[in-house]
Amino acid sequence: MKRLVLLIALATVFIVNLYCAEKYAVLICGSNPEDEALQPQGQFGGIDRHRFKEFWYDTYLMWEMLRGIGYTEENIFVIFGNNFDDQGNVADWTHPNMSPRYTHPDSALKVTDYIATHDNISTVLSGFALGDDENNIPQLLDDDFLFVWTFDHGTADTTVTPYIPAIQIVALTPEDPVFFTAIEMRDYLNNIHCQKKVVWTQNCGGGAFINYLNNNGLSENLIINTSCTGFGVSVPCDDIYLSQGIPLYIDGLENEHIPLIGGEDYTHGEFDFHMYSVTSGLTPNFLNHYNGELLSSADTNSDGTISVWESKSWEQLHKSGPEEPDYWEIDSVNHYLGSTTSLEYPNLIFEDIDENTSIKGIVAITDNVSICNNSVLTIHSGTKMYLKNASRLVVDAGSTIIIEDNVQIFGETATQFEITSQEIVGNRIIVNGSASIGNNVLFTSLNDQSWDGLYLCGTGQSELIDVTFENCNLFCANGSLSVRDSDFDQSLVKCSGASMNFRDCTITGKMSFNNALEVR
């Protein structure tokens, strides 16, 4: 959730909203496996089974996937069936029969937040648009990211003419279905003014949603990936591997055989299985490959991150059965939006910046990037920027980087054996041009690992006020640097060929200087 930080100064309390970008998700599955009839032995192999068990297994997997790529539990809203992972509502094939693999890791907690009713779906989506303090649903801001996943029987609302594509949700009786239509989804998403939205659907006929969702006037930052076309079907996994187009049945390839009372298998939707596996880097059975094909091979540009476009491409190549996946983004030729968006890092940067550019939200620099051609890169307030792999961000002479207030910058690797033939480069921001850095900027590390930090190598004057360095360095060469009201925790401060002025700073690391230094 958004953070509210209290600043206390001179016995006066100032309340300052220091909002940083966040990523949110809503997972919607409207039916319960236990509501479905037993399926005769032989159709999927093994003993008689409850149909559509994948409704729960895949809902859980999507929740698990999101937790694994950095979504906080409070930012994932799960709307499922009759809320059956509640210990007080036990289906005959779940507790204690169901493997703990598909229950919350903390047995005192549950994954589901809401019963899947029309009102509850409306509550969550309208809460994202307007904020809902009573239900602890935040209003999404223009630097936030939203992921929407739906799974259920795809159908049509037959109460209107012409019929409208819809997903079926919980009803009191099977004869009295309730729908959440594509038009409703469009209208709710249209009112959520966040930076980007990605929608995955595993419903039959899910492709029909594309014609409605991409016609909302705000579709330039929308990506829709569906398991099938508007007239197609979505199917469960069939344990079939396509070997050069030839179907090969491999028992347990996709549906797990986990021991449990009753002996039933754990089934998944075909689309969900592939999207979960390639995005997580592991199959539901904790394998890093799919019949020997490394899941990491889906990373076609080798930047260490699976983009939305790469996950779509993997699924389309490996799906079997009658499904015909559908995909939409506004750039239907180059797929630039899908290639620069991932569920983990909604904004990916891996190419040089040669024109004035502004970035915001959650950003990953996944390859060496130069700001060149006398360009200006502005990192907006509230941005979280991650330097991944061994990437470096270099500001060429004549170019400028502007880091506004309340920006957080994360690194993960430090250079080893520097200035030797064995040098292994690490994350670093190198400014050969000019830099403007705002207040309350944080340079920190992932998992307490050190990284190189900020290297100011231009000839001009720089000033840092209320900046924090944790497990990374500040290096200044040439020019002059004034630093005040700043903290350096386990960080090296080094000056070479420049003058530095420190005032009211806390330094718990090391300092190294061979030029003018003034400390007050």
Instruction: Kindly report the oligomeric state of this protein.
Output: single chain
- What is the third-level CATH name, the topology of the largest domain? Rossmann fold
Secondary-structure-based class equals alpha/beta
CATH architecture of the largest domain: 3-Layer(aba) Sandwich
Tell me the number of strands: 40
The largest pleated sheet is described as:
8 strands, parallel
Number of helix segments?
7
User: How much is the average pLDDT?
Assistant: 84
Name the beta content range.
Answer: 25-35%
Please bin the fraction of helical residues: 10-25%
Q: What is the gyration radius calculated from CA atoms?
A: 26 Å
**Total tally of structural domains:** 2
User: How far is the N terminus from the C terminus?
Assistant: 38 Å
CATH class of the largest domain: Alpha Beta
What would you call the shape?
elongated
Which spans of ≥5 residues are poorly predicted at pLDDT below 50?
3-17, 40-49, 86-95
| Biggest β-sheet: strands ordered side by side in the sheet | 18-20-23-26-29-32-35-38
List the helices and strands and how they pair.
Layout: E1 5-9, E2 12-16, E3 23-29, E4 38-39, E5 49-50, H1 54-68, E6 76-80, H2 118-130, E7 145-151, E8 154-157, E9 164-169, E10 178-181, H3 182-190, E11 196-201, H4 208-213, E12 222-226, E13 240-243, E14 246-249, H5 270-280, E15 289-290, E16 293-294, H6 308-318, E17 326-328, H7 336-339, E18 347-349, E19 357-359, E20 362-365, E21 369-371, E22 376-379, E23 384-387, E24 392-395, E25 400-403, E26 408-411, E27 428-431, E28 434-437, E29 441-445, E30 451-456, E31 461-465, E32 467-470, E33 472-477, E34 480-484, E35 487-489, E36 492-496, E37 499-503, E38 506-507, E39 510-513, E40 517-519
Parallel strand pairs: 3-6, 3-7, 7-11, 11-12, 18-20, 19-22, 20-23, 21-24, 22-25, 23-26, 24-27, 25-28, 26-29, 27-30, 29-32, 30-33, 31-34, 32-35, 33-36, 34-37, 35-38, 36-39, 37-40
Antiparallel strand pairs: 1-2, 4-5, 8-9, 9-10, 12-17, 13-14, 15-16
Helix pairs in contact: 1-5, 5-6
